[in-house]
Structures are given as structure tokens and as C-alpha cells.
């Protein structure tokens, strides 16, 4: 897919703490009427894209949207007995918010700019300097301090991009930290940011751990 194939306008799903990254999958539970309407409209489009973006507060406490989000294609869809929907978005590309579009839809829409993130449409990123064993040791300490369980066999077998991006999406960081992970220019800088966040969490718990 090329950037020229992507639409200039996207429906937006502002969700605090929700992070979607290119080529990763994000499951979502849709039940609010405005987002049910968004989902219905999305399914009528050829691209089936929804823009995930984080809300934030402005200087005076006013509600705003973050400058950068990530578009995901609707790739999974199922209806529950109470007429709610479980969907899966597969990340396509990040985008920069240009301006919200005024209109009659109950959900937000915006004009967006794909240009700064052309590399998102390319092949999977690599991280030649990634040291898996020290990273997994750090991750294990982090999980232990928070009594988190995980599928370690899956983590050990995961490709580097999938591992870093999945952890960035799933770990319980603050919305601000999630945004920093989203805006990381490359997989390398995202891995460095993730390591910093894990180390900071351990320091805050009184465990002075540093990944060398």
C-alpha cells in the first residue's frame, strides 16, 4: 500500500491509554452508540480505517486530541448477544492530525497527514543492537514487581518488532508514556523508550535495576 491510497479524512476513536502501532493488532470492545455508528460507517468504506488517538488536556484544562495517532484497518468483527461488538484493528500507519472536520456524525472526524510516517508502510523494522536476554531479564523483574503473568514461550519466540510493539501496547503505562512510545521515530528508539520506562518503574519500586 502507498500513502496515496490512504484517505485524507479519518473517523477518530479517542481512547485514553489505548495504543495501536503499525502491523500490530488491537482488540476493542465497541458499545457506545456514537462508536457503533462509526463502526457501521467504517464498514461501508473501501479502506475500513479508524484512527486511534489519545485525548489530552490543554493548558486551561480543555479537552484536546494528541497531535499524532495511528490508523488501523478493521480486520476482525464479531457481535455479542447483547448487540455489542468485539473488533480487531490492525495498525497501518501513524498520522499527524491536521484539523477536526465539522459535520453531522456523532463521532469525531479529522483531516490528517500521512507524510511524516511513510516508513510505517514498509517492511517490518529491525533493531540490530537489541539484546534479547538482558531485555527479557529486565521484563521479568518488572512482571514480578506487579504480579503479572505472561506466556514466556511466546515472548521468547516473538520477532523483535512484534515483541517491542506488543509490549508497548499491552503494558500498563500512563497515557503520556503510551504517546511517547507511539511517537518514537523508529523501532530502535521505541525499544530504548520502553527500556527507560521499565527501568523507571523498577526504580520507583525501590529496585535499582539498569539494563546494560
TrEMBL record:
GO molecular function, one term: peptidase activity
InterPro entries, per database record: Lon_prtase_N (IPR003111), Lon_prtase_N_sf (IPR046336), PUA-like_sf (IPR015947)
Domain Lon N-terminal: 10-202
Listed GO biological process terms: proteolysis
PROSITE patterns, sorted: LON_N
Keywords: Hydrolase, Protease
SUPFAM superfamilies: PUA domain-like
Origin: domain of life: Bacteria
Gene3D superfamilies hit by this protein: LON domain-like
Protein name, UniProt field: ATP-dependent protease
Organism listed in the record: Cypionkella aquatica
